[in-house]
Specification:
Blueprint lengths: L13 H10 L5 E4 L6 H12 L2 E6 L16 H12 L8 E6 L5 H13 L4 E5 L3 H8 L8 E4 L5 H7 L3 H13 L6 H14 L3 H8 L4 H22 L2 H12 L1 H4 L20 H13 L3 E7 L10 E10 L2 H8 L14 H18 L5 E5 L3 E9 L2 E7 L8 H10 L4 E5 L4 E2 L3 E5 L3 H7 L9
Parallel strand pairs: 1-4, 1-5, 2-3, 3-4, 10-11, 11-13
Antiparallel strand pairs: 6-7, 8-9, 9-10, 12-13
Helix pairs in contact: 5-13, 8-14, 9-10, 10-11, 10-14, 11-13, 15-17
Organism: Adlercreutzia mucosicola
InterPro entries: AAA_14, DUF4143, P-loop_NTPase
Pfam families: AAA_14, DUF4143
Length: about 450
Amino acid sequence: MRREGLMGEMRRKIDKELMDWKNRAHKPLMVFGARQTGKTTSLLEFGRAHYDQVVHVDFYKQAFAKSAFQFDLTPGAAVESLEALLDVEIVPGKTLLFLDEIQACDEALTALKFFCTDAPEYDIVAAGSLLGVHVARQGSYPVGYVDMLSMGPMDFEEFCWAMGKERAFGLVRKSFERFTPCAVHDQMMELYRSYLLVGGMPEVVAKYSEGARLDEVREKQDELSVAYVADMAKYATSADTVKIVACWESLPEQLAKESGSTKFVWRYVASGAKAERYQTAVDWLAAAGLVNRCTQVSEGVAPLRSFESASSFKLYALDTGLLSSWYRAEPGDFDDGGRRSARFRGGVAENYVMQQLAAARAAAYYWGAQSTYEVEFVVRIGDDIVPVEVKSGERVRSTSAKRFAEKYRCPYIVHVTAKNFGATDAVKSVPLYAAVLLGEQCQKRPLLAG
């Protein structure tokens, strides 16, 4: 956890996507994502930088604003009511109207359709912590009438920016393009191990970048974990809450099983637990953005989605730092060797890679056969189906990946490990810190897929 040099800035990749949205013909924008991933901050900073003013309506803190959409959903009437309620002027092209926690106002969600069709001159963004859960439950989503973006924790590159290492990661990008060894490999591996403990939740990263100790970082992570469980109790029935919490709290054990497989197994949730009773709990966690779900494919053939088995899946925590905090992991626990648990290190590394793939919105699956073979991730890069093997250290046994590559005639295997960049005809080696760059090359997943 050693830190040196000056700190960087809390920049997010969504900033560019927001500018791209502004500069093209666009619909109202909805931003999905879990609580505390930086949605409100990014949207407010974007608005302040690129508009004359931002009108920020938080339907939790300003419940009275719901009345603007209560009687008349036509854009003119809604804008006029908001202007009167908030004592502001909303000017097309100059004002960004930000409808925050929009899941608390169904009428405002519905009104987005009419802004799209009847008043496209208004720039409107909407966000909500449990927007995915609300849409899945209420079915009130204005399909076809909004643009969409998802936002999760900071990926490893964004973490490097915050730590003042933008130039170093720029060198990583060049090495990734050429698959030649990277001169800053040791420095990046040290930052990677810090990221495993800190994670990418913006408030936690900000605290760490300012010099906070691990115990101070962990205090903030614990607050977030408590807040997530509180949301489960607040937005689900009491019976469903018990199941949701049980699935959520099983993740550390699921990812460090003695079998070595990280496949989600119901008996680790509760005694006698079965999919029939608990599947909706997993769906809730996925809709809330609290987990990344990776489903099994039966064949390594394009399109992969046509071969996915929804009943067999892995679940990963949205943030690897939170996962490490549940384990109460210390910096030395990620050293390769000694008396530390290899299963723990492997599970955390796998969770990290999935987090980076999800940040890049990559469509990732896994493959298994007869309980003998398991490939951590299967992705599509261009026209190629590629097996991705993940290891926390440098040693790699590619039995499963080789079997998959032979069976489906894959052009190469990707090893994501602690080794530096390198390539042969059959294998491409990607260091763990560059996993997000691998994700950028992959076919993208649908935004609302679990």
